[in-house]
Amino acid sequence: GNQQLWSDEPELLTVPDGWKEPAFTKDDNPRGLLEESSFATLFPKYREAYLKECWSLVEKALGELHIKASLDLIEGSITVCTTKKTFDPYAIVRARDLIKLLARSVPFEQAVRILQDDMACDIIKIGTLVRNRERFVKRRQRLIGPKGSTLKALELLTNCYVMVQGNTVSALGPFNGLKEVRKVVMDTMKNIHPIYNIKTLMIKRELTRDPELRAQSWERFLPKFRHKNLSKRKEPKKTSAKKEYTPFPPPQPESKVDKELATGEFFLRESVKRRKKMEEIKVKQAEALTKKQEERNKAFIPPKEKPLMKKSVKATEAKLDIQAIKDKVKKARTKKLGAPPVNPSASSSSATDKKKKKKGKIKG
User: Annotated region Disordered: where (predicted)?
Assistant: First the structure.
């Protein structure tokens, strides 16, 4: 008998397909609950308008479970508590999750699904995972993706509703989906791109469809992403070479008197010293004065002017020799290049020559 039990164990562990937990009804707990339980949560100011708008729907949804809900706009809090009619002991926990989600900016249409039996929710705190604010915003945006595409892919693969809001990520869906969502969110905050996890989830989804692979390990199918270390430079940029240790202290720097002794100035008379100093000052002053004078004179030096082109053109026009042009024209007429010209063209050329002559006369 014992051996029979051990052989049946794997079959007992697997959940049959299409099996569902029966719903909890009033017959399961006819006497109701012993004591009143209540939960309260605060909500931000910007959420007030929306909550006022959908409050009647919240009350109606919770009323079906016989749970009383109250909205305090002065304090900014929502409270849920059980009544004498409440029969489901877990209903208050679901109501608590509902008000938590509503406070975290999840729309009522989505949040109300938490009241169903196979639904759960997870509010993942991501605010403290990254110290640098800019880096945190970048990674949070990476989770959402361009036009929300990454988040949408994650929702489709996990069958969960995911909402990224401020320092938290609210997820709502089946338990196994929530586990995956939490892993992806935490990895994203640890600088592992969500696309890697999404790829793994897609492969897993395909593998679940194959009943033969149920008892096998999926390691060989799943991709292995190595963590690349981006900083290749291990050595510091500046290396300070250590000097050899010597027990002797460094030599004392020379004082003013020592320098004077070395040059021989120390032994000069006081009056000679003063004269020498004055001469040095005068030389310096003279140099400074000449520099200043040069700078002042710069203002009086006129800048180089560019030659005007228009005047030169007029000058060349005046210099043109009219007689030389006339001679050129005559030469052109007398020269015969190639075949003899046809009469009409000749007449036309002569006409042009006449015109040229006329122009020349007018200029003259």
Answer: 230-257, 331-364
